[in-house]
Amino acid sequence: MVDVAPAPFGVxxxxxxxxxxCDYCAFAAWADRDHLIVDYLHAxxxxxxxxxxxxLAQATSVFVGGxxxxxxxxxxxxxxxxxxxxxxxxxxxVECNPDDVTDELVAAYAAAGVDRLSIGVQSMSPHVLxxxxxxxxxDHVEHAVDAARAGGMRTFNVDVIYGAAGERLDDWRSxxxxxxxxxxxxxxxxxxxxxxxxxxxxxxxxxxDDDVQADEYWLAxxxxxxxxxxxxxxxxxxxxxxxxxxNQLYWGQGDYRGFGCAAxxxxxxxxxxxxxxxxxxxxxxxxxxxxxxxxERLDAEGRRMEALQLALRTRDGVPAAALxxxxxxxxxxxxxxxxxxxxxxxxxxxAVTLRLH
Length: 357
Known about the structure:
The chain is 35% helix and 24% strand. With 357 residues, the protein is α/β, with parallel strands linked by helices. A hairpin with a 2-residue loop joins strand 10 (264-267) and strand 11 (270-274).
């Protein structure tokens, strides 16, 4: 009898609590709701247990994001994670602030089955962190990485952002070199974006410059690739075998279930999302009501085009028939029967996407 690998299925858990809200953040996160932490995590665990009782599929990956999951008591978060039904060897990730990562925290996570940390470094330049509204100490980054390695994590990610006001190309180079010196198996590098309603949006003088960000992206890909980290998606680089399976599930239009306030779910083209605030979420779970705030459904053509748009961002590219690549010299390359976006093409990904058919 041949063992059949389970279909990829993800679980996302949202933890909305932060010590401070970054100036660029538009996520469902609050810095003045700590009094809700215990009740909130109990509600999340309860919702997961109810879903499990009603046939929630075993997860091949679990991602705990926020907010700042590492801010809440590790034993409570471990209880939430333990409630998620998972397949053997499931990837379980927790996002962490470097200041929060201690040997004890990592040990508690490892005991709960966590095998991957995503460490929010953002920059190794203090003045750039200040520009972003971040409060962690760059000196804590190395210890966080050491703790992840010593504490039994299978892998970890270092998360960085480029394009902050006052960041020079040399600052960005220094951040990349400092990150590479830590020998991470995975790096995510995102261009700073301006989200409506954020303090950053209200201050045009601090908005990123497209040309500067293009230069910074080019440098990131050069240095990370030279360090042996392969670009497997526009904003993600990894050593072979250290790609984030949970993100790959998203990019492949897989099914996933979100738990917690503002968490999103997807099943066969239908998406739905939970109520946004932790107060409303806790009340809904406590009273036995639905936590769903709204939903949408993509038709077959919408799903097909979305699949192509997501695939174009990855190293696998899109089927040759989906793109007239000959008309996009330098932006895509032919790999057998697929078109794969180049480094230059990644800088113009939106324009290339418009040519999909």
